[in-house]
Amino acid sequence: MPPRRPGAPEGGAGHVISGGAGARGAGARGAGRCHGVQAERGEGDDRVTTVREDFGQGPDGTGEGQPGRPETETPRPQAPRRWRPTLAPLSGLVRRHWLFSLALAAAAVPRLVVMLGYRPAMLFRLDTFDYLWGAVHLSPNVINPSGYSLFLWLLLPFHSLVLIAALQHLLGLGVATMVYAVLRHYRLPAWGATLAAAPVLFDPEQIMIEHLIMADLLAMVLMVGSFAVLLFRDSPSLSRSATAGLMMGVATIVRPTVLPLVLLIPVYLLIRRVGWRRAGAALAAGALPVLGYMSWFAAVHGSFNMTNSNGLFLWSRTMSFADCSVIKPPPDLQALCPNAQPGPLARADPALRRLPKRYLWNHRIWAWQGTTSGFVPDTAAFTQANNERALRFAILAVKAQPVAYGRTIAAEFLTPFAHTDGTLRFPVVPPSSTALAPYNLRYAIGTIKAYTGSDQGVSRYLGYHFGVRVVHVPAVLMNVYQHLIYLPGPVFGLIVLTGLVGIIIPSRRSWPAILLWASAVIIMVLPTAEHEYTYRYVLPAVPLVCMAAALAFRKQDRKAAPGPALAGAAPAESGAVPAGPAGPPAPAGPAEPSAAAGPAEPPAATVPAGSPAPAGAAGSPAPNGPAVPAAPAGPAEPPAPDGPAVPAAPADPSAQDGPVSEGGPPSA
pTM above the 0.85 mark? Predict the structure, then answer.
């Protein structure tokens, strides 16, 4: 190759060449690079030629424009454009997730029918009115935590039950969206993630709890949101861990059955080895709203607790199996025995006894003796003294009869899988207010008026179970829908079983699936263990078990496991040449043609261990062909005219699509 004239441009247009003095000697060779500047030394003269790639004039006039463009072609700075609202990002998102978008739009239709047919919302027994009363007269309730009342208090300025129902329907669709997003993050196909979200999208009983003025939907949103924040990154940051814990803590003051999950999240983080700081942040953030609420309750009612009802609820649970001849309670607890209860409640045979709620709300039992009911009914029995007394009996009963207690819980836990629930069905015939006692009816109407300013047209339609004004045509359509589309109990059981099998099989197991499945079981078992089975308590577990079951079918990582490599051999798939100690560079020469793919042959010569091996020497065979013999070492030459070759960057395993570390615990 003929020598280049010093100072002549090498790159044509867009390159500037400047010369200057300052050479150390004529024989120096090498190349240097500093901030995009390449220095060359001419042979036999004392000038230093600097070749600099001209980027043109940038927007700020500093000369850093587009690479390879002359200064005359550099675009002039544009005036700052004003932000204009556009639907382009949303439309792109819909196109990328078109299948779920169609399902989401279809799921909005039955919700719209419900909004038109059941006005202003579904009012559930006296619980709805307790929450509304707590929003108007902000105070912690002695029966249920008032977290949902705080949510209603935020919406109090609008005085609208319709707005509450509409927001809850949107939140329900948001739960389905979070299910889909988490599963897509774990590399499930779009159809699989959409299928897992289908029960939340289309189950009529899910739509019912969205239309109820009750705490269940808000607790579900916070719980699923907490898991979405936690699991949407394979190694959650400190802020994500704290946010997940905080959301679960807020869910606890809405529905206290999720309290164990506040502890489960830090345990999960410790198992995943993300650091004790993140686990501690999740625990502290989760405990903050719980302790804050308990302090508020103590300031109003005098006991550091969330309610004055946990002991009474657990006592009613023991009425399903308690035998005082086995328990042998002290004299001050004899009145709490099943045979000491009034009328038909005093059955000796546990199989013939009534449901636990019949014991709790019967005003002739021991807890209601000597109480008077004010404007707010069914609260006089829930005092700190009665709660502590009931809790003492319940603990004695569970200790004396643990097998009977476990058998009772297990029988009711299996109920939603063996039978399809029909308690949360939309009515076609409007309810009647004659089903309510006069003092309960007065409380219900007064509460609605206090929150909205009117009776909302439902004063004649406040039944024992539901209170709502029914519009005939949409109600008939919804009745047809709920008889065609629903989640059968055996199918629900199959989903739970699939999730269990997925965490048992080592190749299918993952820690996120274990967390979700265990959380679902906890929130299904705990209400039954504390009081009694109700399908309304089971519904928040549906999105969790659907995600756990879907994760059993997630796309597995196909990482090549490093096998035992021969000495001096390179991995055949990656094509990387093992690096040896740096030695003198081989003389520049023409590039070797690619060898035909075939089995690698052993090198002709090997370099003794510890001796420097020249670059490209024998002992490093080509990945797809025979080894190239080492070039003899000679005097060093300047680099080739085009500059030194830049080695290819090694593949980053963390850049793979999907979670890097999603494997489960090691198999036994």
Answer: no
